[in-house]
């Protein structure tokens, strides 16, 4: 499975962006897809995940209520809708996929840069 993340860009604080993670190859509908981000000089951190079974979602506390992840299995795409963006959301965002809860993410896409200006 190959993943490609896109949709990043420059946005003012309070604005919105929607990231997309498009998969090719493999059985996308059987994969849970997570979003992670890495800010300059910081560790990569978890942002959200949408599960393959039932579409349940989880979010980091820092984005809860502002970010929403969704998926379209027919398009093999997972989205991350980011609203009320803050400068501290500035990071490279990555999508990744895994087969089961608590298992490692085995497929990673390249990152897409999100820059939020104050």
Please characterize this protein's 3D structure.
It contains no helices and eleven strands. It has 118 residues and is an all-beta fold. Strands 2, 4, 5, 6, 9, 10 and 11 form a seven-stranded mixed β-sheet that branches. Strands 1-3-8-7 form a four-stranded antiparallel β-sheet, with no helix packed on it. A hairpin with an 8-residue loop joins strand 9 and strand 10. The termini are far apart. The model has no long low-confidence stretch (mean pLDDT 95).
Short description:
The chain is an all-beta fold. The protein has strands at 2-6, 9-12, 17-24, 32-38, 45-50, 57-59, 67-72, 77-82, 91-98, 107-108, 112-117. It contains no helices and 11 strands.
Key attributes of the depicted protein:
globular; 11 strands; seven-stranded mixed β-sheet; mainly beta; 118 residues
């Amino acid at each position: 499975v190959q993943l490609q993340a896109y949709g990043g860009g420059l946005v003012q604080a309070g604005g919105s962006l929607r990231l997309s993670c498009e998969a090719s190859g493999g059985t996308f509908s059987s994969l849970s897809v997570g979003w992670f981000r890495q800010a300059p000089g910081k560790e990569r951190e978890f942002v959200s995940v949408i599960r393959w079974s039932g579409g349940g979602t989880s979010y980091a506390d820092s984005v809860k209520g502002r970010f929403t992840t969704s998926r379209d299995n027919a398009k093999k795409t997972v989205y991350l809708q980011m609203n009320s963006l803050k400068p501290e959301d500035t990071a490279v965002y990555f999508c990744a996929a895994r087969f089961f809860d608590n298992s490692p993410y085995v497929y990673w896409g390249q990152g897409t840069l999100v820059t939020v200006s104050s």
